[in-house]
Structures are given as structure tokens and as C-alpha cells.
Amino acid sequence: MTNNLSQTIKLLVVAGFAVCLAAGGFYAYRHYRASGAVLTTAEITTLAKNVALEDRAEWLRLARGVLAAEAVSPLASPREPVNNRGEATRVELGYLLFFDPILSADKTMSCASCHHPDYGMADGLPKGVGVGGHGYGAQRAGTGRVLSRNTPSIFNAAFSSIQFWDGRAGSLEEQALEPIFNEDEMAQPSAAELLKRLRAIPRYRELFGKAFGFNSKQDGSEINLQNVARALAAYERKLNVTDTSYDFFVKGQDERLTTEQLRGLVVFFGQGQCATCHIPPHFHDGVLASIGTTTSIAKDAPLDPDPGFAAVLRREDGFGMFKTPGLRNIERTAPYMHNGAFKTLEEVVEFYNEGGGRGRGLDAISQDSKVTKLELSEQQKKDLVAFMKALNDLAPAPKQPGSVPSGLPVGGK
User: What do you get for the CA distance between the two ends of the chain, in Å?
Assistant: First the structure.
């Protein structure tokens, strides 16, 4: 009799727990969280299917659960090379060099010509405009030589161990000089000419002496290519998006995300699989990969012919592989992809939802196996875009200097 009663009680307990799960699993979820345990992202994704769209309290609970499951941490400061600590004197010098067209062959183009504060430290164009160009953003279109790739934002570039879309540089210092001497970009013909120009300017002799000299005579002896690169890199390393609605949410400010963005956060880490490559807090993974990017958003568009990393690697299996871009400030740096083929975040999400190039039936031989069809609903896609907008910078855009040592127009023509 006692054994039968015990078995009956066990069956009732099991049945009761099953009823709780059938009701959406929230009793079990709350109890699980209250015990101090953490649900997995997959479990939270399943629970999310039964939550009403406007039930903010539950979406907030699920979003917090996802961050706990993914062990998300706040953004830290970037690491600085031992031989290029970010002293104020170097940052100031790099700041002025960045906006000074003295670096280009015809003295009309600066780094800011393509990486402008008004355009999220990019240019807002499908593909960059190099030598011969003038103006910023849409004004620059059609004024000079069109480059082969979209201009990436340099915000948070300090957190990446690879630079350029094809990963051919391993540091900001290594990257800094290439656009200056690239014949399609700033087209500076020789290092000797560049150094001669800089050494002829008293203010630069002073700045380089303070930034790199020891008891410097400020005679221009510290002006060399290595120090030009170091100064530019020191400034670029300070260009970081750290104050976003997402960052404040991670720090505990629940009100920073809308209900739509909370839902999008759950999709981002869950069914959308975005965080597989766009890993917080930087929202990139520091590697190169192929998603089978096409020449346009059109359903019948072919694969983009740009070899990407294959040209660096000199192997076919690197075809179409490009650096995973960070998503901070992503709304403000359209258009997207290495070829600038996608105009909106909605188009990007739809492409991923279809499974990239391979999902469209194209022979994307190097496409990452993680890029597969997602089967997101229209609501989930909208929520996902809303969440990415929570990565917008809330701080003011970087300011241009009032003047530069060369006396040329700040930022170029």
C-alpha cells in the first residue's frame, strides 16, 4: 500500500511538471533561474517561441538569460603594442596627420577623405573613391578613381588582429602606410618625397620630436615612415565605439533596450546564429570567412568575383573569404559587404536568412559551414535589425581639427 502511494505521488509530480512545460515552460524557467542555474541559449530560444510579442517582462528575462548563457562581458580597452603606447603626444600627432592632405601626392586627399566622422569613419559609398576624388560621402561619388572594395569603418579597428577586407595586414601600424603609397588611393610616389614635405614644416618637426624623441633637437630626425605609421595607428586606436544602448544594457540598465530590441537580442544569439561569428563585445571574430557574397541582392545575382583572401593566400580554397566586420555603429556605415552591394540591414538579414550564396544554389566553394538557412519569421527579421541599431554610438562623432600643420584645407578638398 505504501509503495503504491509513493509511486502515485511520483507520477503526479511528473505529470504536474509536464503540464508546466506544456504551458510554455515559464514556471520551470523561473524556478531554474531562481535556483541560480543558467539555461542554455538553445533552451531560451525554445522558450521564446511561446512569449507574447509585447510581454516586456518575459523578454527582458530571456534577454538577461541569454547574456548569462553566453557569458557576455563588457567591452575593455584595446591592447597597445609595447613599442607604440598611446601617449597623448603621439595621439595628437596622428590626429593631425589623419586630417592633413599633405600625405597624398596632389595634397588634396587625407585619410579622412574616405574615413570621415560624418559617415561613421567610412564614406557611405558602395566602393571607395581614391586618387582624383574630392568631397565627402555622396559628393565624392564619380569624382575620382573608383576602388575595388567598400570602405570599412575604422571604428574599433584597434580590437582586430587583421586589417583590410582581405586580412593582408596584421596591425594598425602595418596598415597605416599602404593607402598613402597605393597608386589608386593617395598615390604618394615616394617615401623620400613624403618625409621631405613633413620635415619642411616646423610644427611637424616639433610634434614628431615630442612624440618620439628624447631630448629632441626637433630638427626632423624623428620624422621617418615608422613613426608616421605609429602616430596614425595611435590615433586610430582611440577611435572606439563604447557607449551604445547595448553596452548600457549589459551594465544593468534594463530600460536601454526597447521590447523589440530585446526580442532581437534573443534572435541574434539564438535562431539567427549571428553571434557565432559576430561575437560580443566586439561583434566580430577576428577571422576571415566566406558567406558566398553575390554581386547584388537580386535573387539571380552571381557570386562576386573578388578573390579576397585567396589573392593573399594564393590558394583557391581562400576564394571569397573576407574579414568578419564588427557590428558596432553598423546602421551608420551602409552600404554593406566588401563590395557594398547591399544597401540596407534588411537586405543583409534576408541574405543570411536564405543561407548565403550556397543557400541560393551558387557554387560558393569556400562558404563557411556555419552559414545556413535560418528560417526566421518576418517579425524575427525586423527584431534582429532593431537590435543591431542598439549598437549605434551614443557619443558625439570625432571632431575635425581647426587646422593642420601644413596649412592645407582640413581633410582635403
Answer: 94
